[in-house]
Amino acid sequence: MTKFEYAPAPESRSIVDIKSSYGLYIGGEFVDGKGGSFKSISPSTEEVLAEVTEATADDVDLAVKAARQAYDKVWSKLPGSERAKYLYRIARIMAERSREFAVLESLDNGKPIKESRDVDLPLVSQWFFYYAGWADKLGHAGLGPDPKALGVAGQVIPWNFPIMMLAWKIAPALAAGNTVVLKPAETTPLTALLFAEVCQQAELPPGVVNIITGAGATGQALVEHPDVDKVAFTGSTAVGKAIARSVAGTSKKVTLELGGKAANIVFDDAPLDQAVEGIVGGIFFNQGHVCCAGSRLLVQESVYDEVIDKLKQRMSTLRLGDPLDKNTDIGAINSAEQLARIKELSDVGDAEGAERWSAPCEIPDSGFWFAPTIFTGVTQAHRIAREEIFGPVLSILTFRTPAEAVEKANNTPYGLSAGVWTEKGSRILSMANQLRAGVVWANTFNKFDPASPFGGYKESGYGREGGRHGLAAYLQGASA
Ligand code: TAP
């Protein structure tokens, strides 16, 4: 049994200054809201980290006005090379302050510090550096000779990669010449609020970036605001559909990055130890709170027993616990609501006859936790094979032929990502052509790069983030 040792890390915690309460960041300064407030808690301990303002529709209106004014009077008049200077400045500050951001992200979100430190934060500064480079070269992006910005972008992001999603949204929007109003998720607002301080430090003109905190109603007021020209949303397919309906018939341009149920496909010629690492990273990275998680494992029958044995052995070494402990592999589930959903769907897996096995972790007394879990004997009809669990739960199916693997992999309403493990290059290319997924990883999983477009097919949404394709989403008349 893996012993759970709670190792509080006060020294790392002290590197970030968390204020007891936060206002809204509008027009370059923190202001009081017109409504109430809510608490942001640490999901690993349930301690209150800060009191955060709940923006009302009037507050949203003020933020959109600030963004409009900044667009009309300042940002739209700056040459791309000047916008680039601000973006480079932000990129450098994010790199310099990455430790502080990583600790705050792990406290507010529950993710292991080795992930926020080694994955999320490096990608954040890379994203700003990458799009800074485009700001004065938009005419060379293949999106028209002199592409123009859209105006004010309303951006709504989820809780699974709070600061990374912020970077994915804000960097291309500003590079393309838009101003933004961004709403982080209710359970993870703190790194976005710290980013507001970075905007001040970078002397970004007031109103170019506005951060408003709140729940779904605040997000709805933002996307429905008549003076918002562009809506960029990452979150659940249910909310994405509601947003698509609410903006239908308006001139707003919309990008939706929604859910997924990715197949991670292991052929019998794959290097199995490497594949097992990819399976573990594919589903247990960020506690499985990953839209592109490899949540359905398809294993070729001839290596099924070997893969399951190796997988269980590897899972038995995973350490679950304090997100600030550098040795932690599995952090906390982000909220009580998400934990309840993971438990509910896992119970459905039991009831439908799949066989559950969980890694032998000790679960802490407080906070929200779920041990890394696999289900074997899963069929395509099972809800755990069809619905997004968004937690550390892997549904395992088998296949005999490549054609059967493709059919099973594509048998989902989603189409965000997929993984293929095989030694044959020709099989990789053939599978990539047949899989209906926006991203197909080969002999790796969950790899991201700012130059590479990311986005879905079918109910996983539309539009792309990353690369020059990501610029098209923020420019008039451009489609990548
Ligand atoms: P949602 O409940 O959809 O929330 C996403 C964001 O939208 C949050 O900021 C949320 O505010 C806000 N929101 C809720 N209702 C809204 C409404 N009616 N109008 C406008 N905004 C609204 O998703 P979640 O639970 O945070 O995130 C999990 C889901 O996101 C998963 O399905 C996952 O697959 C998907 N996801 C997709 C991607 C990509 S790139 N495709 C990336 C990450 C996550 P509150 O925080 O207050 O609810």
Layout of SSEs?
Blueprint: H1 10-13, E1 21-22, E2 24-26, E3 29-31, E4 37-41, E5 48-53, H2 57-73, H3 80-96, H4 98-109, H5 113-134, E6 152-156, H6 162-175, E7 179-183, H7 190-201, E8 209-211, H8 216-224, E9 230-234, H9 237-247, E10 253-257, E11 263-266, H10 272-284, E12 296-300, H11 304-315, H12 336-351, E13 355-358, E14 373-376, H13 383-386, E15 393-399, H14 402-410, E16 417-421, H15 425-434, E17 439-442, E18 461-462, H16 467-472
Parallel strand pairs: 1-5, 6-7, 6-9, 7-8, 9-10, 11-12, 11-16, 12-15, 14-15, 16-17
Antiparallel strand pairs: 2-3, 4-5, 10-18, 13-14
Helix pairs in contact: 2-8, 3-5, 4-5, 5-6, 10-11
The protein binds 7-thionicotinamide-adenine-dinucleotide phosphate.
7-thionicotinamide-adenine-dinucleotide phosphate binds at residues 156-160, 183, 185-186, 215-216, 219-220, 223, 234-236, 239, 242-243, 257-260, 291, 388, 390, 416, 456, 461.
Shape: globular
Percentage of helical residues?
25-40%
Number of strands: 18
> Would you state the CATH class of the largest domain?
Alpha Beta
First-residue to last-residue Cα separation: 51 Å
Largest sheet: 7 strands, mixed
Low-confidence stretches: 1-8
Rg estimate, integer Å = 22 Å
Question: What count of structural domains?
Answer: 2
